[in-house]
Specification:
This protein is mainly beta. The termini are far apart. It has 1 helix and 13 strands, in the order E-E-E-E-E-E-H-E-E-E-E-E-E-E.
Length: 188
């Protein structure tokens, strides 16, 4: 399958995790995985930085709580490993298997840039990200009229339809999510 161009015309990449710091003195790194199974961080071949400027062969070395300990090729001492803190690790979308659990087979990364449309057709804006700060998945929506992004729970009730082919996510936001009373019609 050919990669799908993103908004900037670049091939789509999926972030598998982020380096949280060094582990030991031999250049190992701690990685917070964004994959379903933590070891998935090292399962899809070499990883690269978001801009694609640096690529690393990656191997799994162990686990530490909710983090994965990895070896990145070319990172051989603690100082270099520590300097990578905050670096997100990506792979091209086409390296990943078809997403399971949904007949369309999509990943959260596929939602970025899609229109967020209400049940009534109202244009709420575009999906800017999918976040999880520990209490569940959240859609980050950049409002159509501009301003700060809005976070909304990514639940079946709030997001009744994801239409990748149509370039949209149908949302039913809770009252007050977008700072107006239009959502109050939901009857809650």
């Amino acid at each position: 399958m050919a990669p799908t161009p993103d908004r900037d015309g670049q091939d789509k990449k999926v972030c598998l995790g982020v380096v949280t710091g060094a582990h030991g003195v031999r250049g190992l790194v701690r990685v917070k995985p964004y994959t379903e199974m933590p070891e998935g961080v090292a399962a899809y071949g070499p990883v690269e930085t978001k801009d694609g400027a640096t690529s690393f062969a990656i191997s799994l070395k162990g686990m530490a709580k909710d983090l994965v300990i990895c070896k990145l090729e070319g990172v051989d001492d603690r100082d270099v490993a520590a300097a990578l803190r905050g670096t997100e690790l990506y792979v091209p979308r086409e390296r990943l298997p078809r997403a399971s659990g949904d007949e369309e087979g999509w990943y959260y990364a596929d939602l970025i840039g899609l229109r967020a449309v209400g049940l009534d057709g109202r244009d709420y804006g575009r999906i800017a990200g999918v976040e999880n700060f520990g209490a569940g998945d959240l859609l980050e929506i950049a409002p159509a009229e501009g301003g700060q992004t809005v976070l909304m729970g990514f639940t079946d009730e709030n997001v009744p339809e994801v239409d990748i082919a149509g370039g949209r996510v149908v949302i039913d936001p809770p009252a007050g999510t977008f700072g107006d009373d239009a959502e109050a019609e939901r009857g809650e």
